[in-house]
Amino acid sequence: MASLGPVSAQFMRFEQPLPLQSGTVLPDYTLAYETYGTLNATRSNAVLVCHALNAGHHVAGIDDKGSAGWWDNLVGPGKPLDTDRFFVIGINNPGSCFGSTGPMHLNPATGRAWGADFPVVTVEDWVDAQARLVERLGITQLAAVLGGSLGGMQALAWTLRYPDRVRHCIAVATAPNLSAQNIAFNEVARRAIVTDPEFHGGHFYEHGVVPRRGLRVARMIGHITYLSDDAMEAKFGREMREAERHWSTQEIEFQIESYLRHQGDKFSDYFDANTYLLITRALDYFDPAREHGGDLARAFAVARGKRFLLVSFTTDWRFAPARSREIVKALVDNRIDVSYAEIDAPHGHDAFLLDDERYHRVMRAYFERVGQGCDV
Amino acid sequence: MASLGPVSAQFMRFEQPLPLQSGTVLPDYTLAYETYGTLNATRSNAVLVCHALNAGHHVAGIDDKGSAGWWDNLVGPGKPLDTDRFFVIGINNPGSCFGSTGPMHLNPATGRAWGADFPVVTVEDWVDAQARLVERLGITQLAAVLGGSLGGMQALAWTLRYPDRVRHCIAVATAPNLSAQNIAFNEVARRAIVTDPEFHGGHFYEHGVVPRRGLRVARMIGHITYLSDDAMEAKFGREMREAERHWSTQEIEFQIESYLRHQGDKFSDYFDANTYLLITRALDYFDPAREHGGDLARAFAVARGKRFLLVSFTTDWRFAPARSREIVKALVDNRIDVSYAEIDAPHGHDAFLLDDERYHRVMRAYFERVGQGCDV
Asked: Which of B70, B67, B101 lies closest to B88, judged by CA?
């Protein structure tokens, strides 16, 4: 299938402060975004793609640096989310480190980088920021909002916050909130970062350093939770890097150690430590049932009339199928139209980013349906 | 049931160097140990208890500091491992930080603390050290060797290394080797420790500091893997410390965060960073099938005639029941007498230390059988 070819980020500035769930505001900010395909005359074919922790607006195509978008296998001409048919929007959320206003940018109130003082943002705040951008693009109703993992939470939040502005919600490998174990992993990663002496209370930019040690540990923990136990066993098992043991506690003996260290090193080269804190915290806080006494079905009452596709993966132990089923049940309890696919895939949480045939077939079929609702 | 009351550590010095699997030796060393109960006239009622990461020779009773032994619920007068009947020995392994020679002690060759230069020790090395001590106590054959988790690996290794010196092996919540995921968690913990600037290449003793940040992160990761997802959910769920959110990435919001930080803080007060590296590495290396081309059944051929009890816990995802079943299969393939109990317990890996009625009933019944083989 053809790829989109070169794509470029666009930037939209918002001078009107964004009110945040925490009670404060995000003043004057800029969002990076990309679009693929063509908005039709009735502006009814727009699909918004929401990103997770380590991604941004560059969803598909090849950017200026020669990098393919993070969901390029799914989004493009002739692909399951077909850019010949849909107008697809990728937005980088505020607080991230891939182009939109984030902790590495200047706090207008102090004239220094925001650092750890960047306001705490939530899934709902991101959805509000996205809604403003979508509105400025002249789109009053999205054909669909789509996301995986944390992106799936944003897709769900759209149907709760702006039910009139979205027709379909596609939420992949996601959960209605984090479990204690999910929060625990986030907390360990955050502690690794903030206790790194080079974190400097989040103002490391001024010191010309990066809390790399903390970021490396955070990423290594993340990678363990993204892969299934079985996938890790199949890929690495107990394979040694060399035939002979080194009898060392610090040298690399096993291939899995080499893999994790490499992932940690790479990540610490480009990811922002304050962004890591902000995004993991947004994950922790997400809990739409909370203001409904813990009743998820009541939370989704407002989404009646929307249509949903939920997808989970059997070996995903980060956001296990049971978590998606909780959402399906809450939707069914509201007699909301929901399709649900539990894909038997070995790759764990990472599966949502991979090119699994059965998964992509489900996505393609669903987007066929989304397309039927668009005036073309 | 009565407790053992006050117990005291004893120390045994070994001037003869201990040859290690790595090819080097541990020179002149001391082992801390405790014993409970009375060795019978034929010296046939001795049971050795092997410890895991965060434990030592203080298995049962109350020590000088008023602390109960780590397996006091299992070992004592009238308890499943009945000290009225058995002579029970707890030994602290070399390299540990609870009394036996370890990295915080002086390296005779340099006159400074061993630090990270303490020789890498393996499960087999520990068993060799234990065997010497048992021999000095005048015991030529143990009635049984018992351990959980890493202790279970030692119990298994006894039957492979000294099959004539042990009649029964009781291995609880253990595995024939670590999976890639197990190694991955160990590696992240080690990286957190060695990249802590206060680790000083393992010679932090000389700097009067402790790599607390690394130890805290290591322990937090450990705790996540000791508890089952369900147990953590039942105990903490999404419970907040206070009703109102603080909207902070660094303050404690959730009870699970508070719990983990507390566990990390406590641990960093007393556990040695070099010991953490050594013990996790011993776990990584353990793999009795390795020298038999990966064939575990062939590894256990030498243990024919021994009797085994294997116990696992349904929610243990660190050393899942499937790992115990691999051992059971290897034993059965050798027509070795093995009992296996898979206990339906909610607590995850930690269950092996807890007072679960069904679990303790199995242990009691098995020790009845062990006792029948002792001349009394």
From this structure: B70
